Amino acid sequence: MSTDNTTDASTETESKCGASEAGEARSASKNASGTAASEAEAETDTASKCGASKASSSTETTPDTNDDTTSKCGASSSSTSSSSSSSSSCGASSSSESDEEEEVGATVDDFDAEPGRLIAVGLGPGQPEGMTARARSALLDAEHIVGYTTYVDLLPDEITDGADDIYDTPMCGEVSRTEEAIDRALAGNDVAIIGSGDPNVYALAGLALEIIESKGATATMLDFDVVPGVPAAQSCAARVGAPLVNDTVSISLSDHLTDMPTIESRLHAAAKEGFTITIYNPWSRKRRDNYEKCCEILLEHRDPETPVGVVHAAGREDEQVEIVELGELPELGETDLVDMTTTLLVGNEDTYVWDDRMVTPRGYETKYDY
Q1: Where do the record's region annotations for Disordered lie (predicted)?
Q2: How many CB atoms lie within 10 A of CB 130?
Q3: What pLDDT is stored for residue 285 in this prediction?
C-alpha cells in the first residue's frame, strides 16, 4: 500500500523534502504493485504543458549536451542548469542531488490568465476500488494531474487517458511538483495534485496552501479544495480486525521534517497514555536506529505481549499481513515484512486477539449486557 508519506520500497530513496528532481517522462507501463518503474531522473529537453511558455537557459553545456528543462506554467522566468542538474518546472532550478531548500519561483503577479482550480486528491490505499467516488470524479474532471510517479502509476487508465497532461516526478520532488501544480492552476488550468491515503495525513495539502500563500495568491482565488481518501491507518486496520476503535494517534518515524528527539517524545507520550498507535514509515536502511528506538520506547511502556498488526504493502500484489506480539517487533526490522510501505498498528493495554483478529474494546461491555 502507498501510505500517506511513503517512500518507494524498491529503492528506499530518502526524500529530501526540499530538493527538486525533474521526472517528467512517465513510465511506459503501470506496475500494479505501485512500485515505480525506472525513471530518467535527470531528463533533458523535458516539456510541461501548462498553457503558456517560460524561457529557460542553460549554461556551461557542450554542444552535445542540452539540459534545458522547459516548463510552460504561464509565468516568465529564467532558470539555469549545468550538465549535472535538471531545472524545476516551477520557476526555480536546483540540482537533483542538492539538499538546499527550494525557493518559490513565480508569484501570482507573473500570471495573466484567469486562475483555474487546484484540488488535492487522496487516492486511498492504492487499488482502484479503494478510491472514493468523489476522488474518481474529481480526477476525471481535472485537466492536469500532478503527482509522485508511484502514485500516478496507481491511477486507472480511464483517468490518465482523459487528462490533458500528466506531470510526475520521482522522490525528492515534493516541493517542485506542488509548486508546478499551483503554477498550472494560476495559468488557468483545472489541476489535481494526488497522493495516496488522505491529503491531510503526512501529505501535500498543507504544503500546497503554504506555497499558495508564499506566491501572494489565495486559496479562494484557486478555488482550492481537498478531496479526502482512506488513510493508511484505517485501511490497514481493516485488514487486522478492529484495533483502532477507541482513542488513537498516528506517528511517523521519518525524521526528515520532524527531528528524532521530538518523535521520541511523542512516542513516550502516546505509549504511556494508553492510546492505540499507528506507526508510519517505520523502517529503511537509513533509519534503522529510529525503528530500534521506537521499539525500545514502546516496550518501556507496554507489555511485550501487546498485539501489533503489521501490514506490508496493503492493496498491492506483495501485500502481507501478520499479527505479532510487541516483543517480537524489534527482530522484524531486518525482514522484508517491515519497510517504508509497512504500517504498524500497536494495541493498548485492552487490545486482544480473537479469531485471528485484533480487537480493542470501545467500552460497551462496561455499560451493556451482551
Answers
A1: 1-113
A2: 19
A3: 87
According to DSSP, the residues that pair with 87 across neighbouring strands are: 93
- 174 belongs to a structural domain: yes
pLDDT digits (tens, 9 = 90+) for 287-342: 899 999 999 999 999 999 999 999 999 988 899 999 999 999 999 998 999 999 99
CA distance 184 to 115: 9
Structural Rg of the chain based on CA atoms = 22
Structural domain boundaries, residue 145? 115-230
Point out the domain boundary residue: 179, 205, 230: 230
**How many C-beta neighbours within 10 Å does residue 268 have?**
14
Residue found by looking up cell 549536451 in the block: 65
Q: Helix H segments across 76-204?
A: 133-141, 149-152, 157-162, 174-186
- What number of residues does the chain have? 370
Average pLDDT over residues 210-234: 97
Alpha-carbon distance of 78 to 57, in angstroms, equals 7
**CA dihedral over 193, 197, 201, 203, signed as positive or negative:** negative
Strand 352-354 relative to strand 307-312: parallel, antiparallel, unpaired?
unpaired
In which residue are the cell numbers 486559496 written? 219
219 and 241, same structural domain?
no
CA–CA dist 3, 236 (Å, integer) = 10
The CATH number given to whatever domain includes residue 204 is 3.40.1010.10
How many CB atoms lie under 10 A from the CB of residue 197? 31
Q: What is the pLDDT of residue 90?
A: 34
Domain annotation covers residue 165: yes
Q: Looking at the whole model, is its pTM more than 0.90? A: no
Inform me whether the pLDDT recorded for 67 exceeds 70: no
Asked whether the beta carbons of 226 and 200 are under 8 A apart, the reply is yes
Q: What is the rounded CA–CA span in Å between residue 281 and residue 65?
A: 38
Q: If DSSP codes are grouped into helix, strand and coil, which group holds residue 226?
A: strand
Q: Given a cut of 60, is residue 27 above it in pLDDT? A: no
Among 62-76, 193-207, 284-298, where is mean pLDDT lowest? Answer: 62-76
Residues 256 and 203 in one domain: no
Locate all alpha helices (DSSP H) within the chain, ordered by sequence. 133-141, 149-152, 157-162, 174-186, 205-214, 232-240, 260-272, 288-301
| 276-280 and 248-252 beta bridge pairing | parallel
